[in-house]
Amino acid sequence: MLKLDSPLTALRGVGPARAALLREAGCATVEQLLWCVPLRYEDRSSSTRIADLDQPGPVTLVGRLRKVRTIHLRGRRSMVRAELLDGSGSVPVVWFNRPYLARQVDAQAEYLLHGKLRSGRGGAVELLNPSCERTDRLQGQGRWTPVYSSLAPGLGPALVRDLVQRALPALEAAPVEQIGAAASDRAGADPLPSWLLEKYRLPTLRDSLAMLHRPPDDAPGEALNNRATPYHQRLIYGELLSLQLHLAARRRRAQVAKGHGYRSARDVAAVRRALPFRLTAAQARVVEEIQQDLRRRRPMRRLLQGDVGSGKTVVAALALAEALASGHQAAFMAPTELLAEQHYTVLRALLGDRWRIALLTGSTSEATALRRRLRHGKIDLAVGTHSLIQDSVDLPRLALAVIDEQHRFGVGQRQALVEKGMDCDLLVMTATPIPRSLALTTYGDLDISLLDEVPPGRLPVITELLPVSRRGKVLNRLRDGAQAGEQGYVVFPLIEESTTITAAALEKEGQAVRRALGEIPSAFLHGRMPVDQRLEVARAFAAGEVGILLATTVVEVGIDVANANWMVIESAERFGLAQLHQLRGRVGRGTRQARCIALHGRLSDEARRRLEIFAATTDGFEIAEADLALRGPGDLAGTRQAGVAVLRVADPVVDEGWLERAREDAARLMESGGEEVTALLMRFRPQQPARVR
Ligand code: ADP
Ligand code: MG
Fold first, then answer.
1. Distance between CA 271 and CA 350 in Å, rounded?
2. Which residue would you say has higher pLDDT here, 333 or 244?
3. Do residues 522 and 491 both lie within one domain?
4. What average pLDDT score do residues 205-225 get?
5. Ligand 1 nearest-atom number relative to CA 315
6. For residue 523, what are the β-bridge partners?
């Protein structure tokens, strides 16, 4: 008999090769396969007659395929064209990059196609990239056809559905309390205690999975397709609760570790007095929060979130001063050499009189000698790049690690730095604001400080979107500005011209820009230049010797030159929202009005939406929310990184209500110390692949 923990080879149609593919995709057992919940449902009872097609949009059609032919395009791309006929008429169908379709289509068979109707060549409509299945294979499956994501090449949606259907009997046969328990221990109850199920009137896990894989004909289509059925909600809530429990547990573990204890406040106050400006109220508040953390007898785990230009560096400097003043070692890690170098300069100016500071990057000469001094505690503060986390680097007295632009580092890298010390305090900083939904999931084990204020006297950057045909005019304005002593950046998505990507390249368009700038001193800056050259250019720009910097996104993070007030972004449609925002953040750091001009080529609908949002707001928080919404819930890299359960059904953005409930319930469960309940929930740890959308 098929059981939940049966290997997938127990299913008809799964041999060793397919089982290996499935395992690769995260499904080793029947139960794990059952956790692949359909992305959506197609209503077979409501197909449209071809003669009745009018509006562009999603449609379901049934008919025979004729005139199937493959057309080879540039590169290795191809296109399959065909015609779909039903009794009433015919409609062209196009598939991109699915050459195998042409071989598989059977002229005699009837097919169910579901896809988007769009206006094709010459205004006629065509069906684009539809799903395509023989209707005789769909017999007996009821009204709703569940559509799954493809698990791997060769494990397409239709096959996944067939396998899931074959796996369903295991679910029905299993005692309810087995489902969702860890494979190693199947004695527990349905992982959600009944009082929680009752509280939210949720169905059991078994019913939920069964219904989602085979909805009854009378299930409401809207709710099914919007993940709004109680069955969906059971899974969503269960996942989020489990995630929150993991995070709460992790937090608790951190709390039992002992902290270092920091004492001397005198030196810190002196550093603070010597600052060239007054802290903003937000900075003062965050500095206070950090000081309290550090004086507590448990390690700090704090995320400092502050929009570009909000002044995180000086907050970090004061935190570092706390550690140094207490005789500890500290480290400050940044994602690029350019940025590490800049921080080194700033920190030396602020802290260099009192403490020994060193810079360690991939291009540090005498690195061996430096590492020796670090090991022997002869350096108080190490500033650097990933070089800091090499095995050969020992920081025996490390008590505080600060990581700038932390989203550029993986979880493992952050951990590696922390583990150089004992019970090390950690401050991670990011300019990419984290929407609340992610703050509650990915970063749920960190305390969060917010810099919600920029230093006084700054004007919001004015953003203009212009087609690339206006480049000439824009460059004239840039030249005029530069003649009046202003500085700026022109950023390109590519270094070299590319045959496959249409976008401005530094080498070609960059030269043209340079010519247009005439006398204005300009310089190139990109990642393929030798590091010392790069640093020299950055220095010359900071010193005002170079007026305009023609660069790639190496300038994206952290570069701080207050006099720069022009940011021209070439082929802006090639950049993501977060990146655009970071780039724009390079200007508007002084008191002069700054402008960001996004030049763009032809825009897809999506790119247009992105740029419009970009132009409409300079609020990093709004941008981050919009970015998450645009990229869609499929992009949960953040959650995956957190090293906790991957969310497959839940979406922290859309399901924010459930997220809040789960967070509260998790806190209550942890609080009440209901060891039994907690232990039970901890076992509920999905081990599935992320959904592929
Ligand atoms: P970010 O948060 O983007 O890392 P930085 O730390 O680079 O921002 O700070 C941006 C600029 O603002 C720097 O030139 C810094 O010296 C300046 N700055 C920081 N805090 C203040 C303040 N309180 N008053 C005036 N200028 C400040
Ligand atoms: Mg910064």
1. 7
2. 333
3. yes
4. 89
5. 6
6. 549
pLDDT in tens, 463-507: 999 999 999 999 999 999 999 999 999 999 887 776 666 777 888
Q: Give nearest CA residue, ligand 1 atom 23.
A: 279
* Residue 10: inside a domain: no
* Number of the ligand closest to the Cα of 457: 1
Amino acid (1-letter code) at residue 20: A
Q: What does the pLDDT read at residue 381? A: 97
Cβ contacts of residue 257 below 8 Å, gap of 6+? 298, 299, 423
**444 plus 529 within the same structural domain:** no
* Domain CATH number, residue 96: 2.40.50.140
Which of 303, 310, 403, 618, when mutated, tests ligand 1's pocket best, judged by the most ligand atoms within 8 Å of its CB?
310
Per the CB < 8 A criterion, the answer to whether 323 and 374 are in contact is: no
Other Cβ atoms within 10 Å of 447 Cβ, number:
14
Give yes or no: residues 418 and 446 share one domain. yes
CA angle 649, 655, 658 (to 5 degrees): 100
pLDDT above 70 (res 183): no
Pair (428, 469) in one structural domain = no
Q: How many domains does the chain have?
A: 3
* Residue where a domain terminates, one of 597, 617, 637: 617
E strand map for 419-460: 425-430, 447-451
Q: For residue 427, name the pLDDT band (cuts at 50, 70, 90).
A: very high
Q: Is the same domain home to 427 and 513?
A: no
Q: Residue 570 is part of a domain; what is its CATH number?
A: 3.40.50.300
Residues, CB within 5 angstroms of ligand 2 (ion): 558
Contact 157, 148 (CB under 8 A): yes
Q: Which has the higher per-residue pLDDT, 147 or 124?
A: 147
Percent of the chain with pLDDT over 90: 37
361 lies in the same domain as 471: no
Indicate if 496 and 532 belong to the same structural domain: yes
Ligand 1, residues 283, 314, 563, 618: which to mutate, most atoms within 8 A of Cβ?
Answer: 314
Ligand 1 center from residue 120 Cα (angstroms): 52
- pTM surpassing 0.70? no
Q: Around Cβ 509, how many Cβ atoms within 10 Å?
A: 21
For the CA of 310, the nearest ligand: 1
**Ligand 1: which residues within 6 Å by Cβ?**
277-280, 283, 306, 308-314, 431, 455, 560, 562, 589
Task: Give residue 650 CA to ligand 2 midpoint distance, Å.
Answer: 33
CA–CA separation, 278 vs 287, rounded Å? 13
Answer yes or no: do 429 and 507 share one domain.
Answer: no
Q: What is the pLDDT of residue 187?
A: 32
Does any domain span residue 653?
no
Last residue of a domain, one of 114, 140, 166: 140
Q: What is the pLDDT of residues 85-136, one digit of tens each?
A: 998 889 999 998 777 788 888 888 899 898 888 887 667 788 988 888 888 7
Residue 162 lies in a domain: no
pLDDT at 175: 62
Tokens of 113: 């196609």
Write down the pLDDT at residue 375. 92
The range of the structural domain enclosing residue 489 comes to 462-617
The Cα 319–Cα 300 span in angstroms is 11
Structural domain contains residue 161: no
